[in-house]
Amino acid sequence: MRIAVCVKQIPDPATPYDLDPVTHRVVRPNDQVLDDTDRFGVEVGLQLAEASEGTVTLFSMSPSGSLQGIRQALAMGADKAVIIDDENLAGSDALTTSRVLAAAIEREGFDLVIAGTESTDGYTGVVPQQIAELVDVPSLTFARKVEVTDGGIRIEQQTAGGYDVVEAPLPALLSVTSGVVEPRYPTFKGIMQAKKKPIDTLTAEDLGFSADQVGEAAAGQTITSVEPIPAREAGEIVEDDGEGYLKIVALLEQVKVI
Amino acid sequence: MEFKEEHVAFRKVMRDFADAEIAPFAREWDRTKTFPLDAVAKMGDLGLFGLPFEERYGGSDSDFTTLCIAIEELGRVDQSMAITLEAAVGLGINPIAEFGTDEQKERWLPDLVEGRALAAFGLTEPDAGSDAGATRTKADLVDGEWVINGSKAFITNSGTDITSLVTITARTGPGEISTIVVPTDTPGFEVEPPYDKMGWHASDTHPLRFDDCRVPEGNLLGERGQGFRQFLSTLDDGRIAIAALAVGVIQSCLEESIAYAKERISFGKEIGAYQAIAFKIADLEVAVEAARLLTYKAAWLKDTGRPYKHAAARAKLFATEAAVDATREATQIFGGSGFLNDSPVARHYRDAKVLEIGEGTSEIQRLVIARGLGLPVR
Ligand SMILES: Cc1cc2nc3c(=O)[nH]c(=O)nc-3n(C[C@H](O)[C@H](O)[C@H](O)COP(=O)(O)OP(=O)(O)OC[C@H]3O[C@@H](n4cnc5c(N)ncnc54)[C@H](O)[C@@H]3O)c2cc1C
Ligand SMILES: Cc1cc2nc3c(=O)[nH]c(=O)nc-3n(C[C@H](O)[C@H](O)[C@H](O)COP(=O)(O)OP(=O)(O)OC[C@H]3O[C@@H](n4cnc5c(N)ncnc54)[C@H](O)[C@@H]3O)c2cc1C
């Protein structure tokens, strides 16, 4: 099985990062890490590949930087990576991101595409479905369990109250939740092998996009302003005079949680 | 000083692993004095026991620096698990990898390297500690077997459910010490009840007894009579690794102290606003950097094939004494809560002291350093 796993390199969430005051874009440091939610997609890909003598190819659209995040995913065991790195892509919206990833994935060939449900830094949560539409395959989203069937794939799809069982023939796209599997830690051996694994770097033009079809120029949305999250207000202390619980119930009703 | 790309990547893995798989349980293992076999298995899956050993035995062919990084990061969250790794690799596997024949390596290394089994190293005896050459345990060659009689003291990893062998030093003739591998299922090999220790509660330490314990002649490691030279070289490596444990514990004291000093209010201010506390923390930062530099310098000397005996002693001496100071000061910064076993600094305080004792006391390190300086000290 040829498995394409979408992985995002993002600024390390443990260290604060800035937004550019003019463009409102994330100022991307040279060292970006693998988005934690994408470790689950990589693990699912590796398990399916191990079971089917398949291959796992990573796809990422981002400035390469030190490639630390991509190497992390290669060290887990993926076979190769395709990274689309191009100044013209700066300011791309979710749809452009999906177009670019879809073009790269199609060019490489695939039986299954795997993505996270939503990234940690952008969290629009639309890229997987858009890719499925663009490469014209069924999408199985919010998988909390994945199984290979005869010629297809079956998942337990997380719902608000439980799960639905959904299946589709291959080729298909899968978006996985965290909790679908326990991602492995890269071993030292894996880290050393990752140094030798192929990483192809493509530009938007390599994929047939002209400069005005991507990036800021093609974005269907504009970010007009960015506001900091208001500081948290002081909590309200309820003194218990024996009937404090009534006040708490009233407060909970007021914020509509009960 | 710059670490290689793979060192940086591996440190990140180790940090994540230690934070997720070890740290949440460290307090409980300490309280209940549990040797956590499941955590050891996870360390095995991550390839930690095979880091510096050859790939053909299942190892990762890493350098020594990589092992120190693993030990430091484990030591930051749990000194017991760090010493479990250090003793397994540095004392248990190392002599076999270093002095064993190909046949011995093929027999013993794969299980040890994968972490399915643990090996211990029995040098110290009730009457031979710093003066390890005073070993009394005897091994007589009778009909193609070594017949071993004697006892060992303070042997790490010697009594766990997965301990498969103990490498010991024994007298094999007048003025002659040799190294012999004793499988733990050998009749006459006795593991005595564990010590009741001040710290390292999740680490396994026992006295051992040998009563007419017979192992095949072929269990001799390296040449007969080379035992003294062999353990001295084993200990040189071990000293750098113990220094890495010390760096880990100082790092934790620094991080815990910074967090607490910003949060604890006294006389209307965070205690970090008082110089008496802030300066202690500044000193912790200097201590951890100095200890780290000495440790990784020694590791680098070893990795690049340069002499490192002197540097190993220097790193061990400085880092372990700095660790004892750091844990004491961190406990002071935490005030009364630092005296409670629920606080990590209390555990660190109890755990750190032995760093100045094991694998050569501070006094022995000073002796090695002074002799290296050409002084006629005895
Ligand atoms: C005007 C505008 C400007 C923007 N400028 C920037 C910018 O400068 N930098 C920026 O990062 N974002 C920017 N964004 C947001 C961004 O372009 C998209 O939202 C983003 O690329 C889509 O990612 P997401 O994180 O929202 O995807 P989601 O749909 O939340 O991600 C789901 C999954 O899709 C996959 N995936 C998503 N993105 C990628 C990727 N790039 N490579 C590989 N796999 C991926 C991952 O598996 C992920 O788990 C901008 C958005 C707008 C509207
Ligand atoms: C928890 C723990 C785990 C251990 N694990 C192992 C293990 O796995 N394998 C193993 O073989 N051993 C192990 N040891 C033993 C350890 O290496 C010894 O305890 C250590 O070498 C000191 O020996 P000793 O206890 O006999 O002290 P002694 O040698 O009796 O020393 C007592 C004091 O005298 C000082 N002293 C001794 N000689 C001199 C001198 N010439 N000049 C100046 N001062 C001197 C010492 O520094 C010390 O302060 C372990 C010990 C502990 C506590």
Which short descriptors sum up this protein?
heterodimer, A: 258 residues, alpha/beta, Rossmann fold, two-stranded antiparallel ribbon, 7 helices, 27% helix, globular, B: 378 residues, alpha+beta, Butyryl-Coa Dehydrogenase, subunit A, domain 1, Butyryl-CoA Dehydrogenase, subunit A, domain 2, Butyryl-CoA Dehydrogenase, subunit A, domain 3, 4-stranded antiparallel β-sheet, 10 helices, binds flavin-adenine dinucleotide
Structural overview:
The complex is a heterodimer of chains A (258) and B (378). Chain A is α/β, with parallel strands linked by helices and 258 residues long. Chain A is built from seven helices and eleven strands. Chain A has helices at residues 38-52, 68-76, 94-108, 127-135, 188-194, 215-218, 244-254, and strands at residues 2-6, 9-11, 32-34, 55-61, 80-84, 112-116, 139-149, 152-158, 163-169, 172-176, 199-202. In chain A, α3 crosses α4. Chain B has helices at residues 5-32, 37-45, 64-77, 79-99, 102-114, 227-263, 275-303, 309-333, 344-352, 362-372, and strands spanning 118-122, 138-142, 145-156, 163-173, 176-183, 189-191, 205-216, 220-221, 265-266, 269-270. Chain B is globular and about 80 Å long. At the A-B interface, α2 and α5 of A face α1 of B.
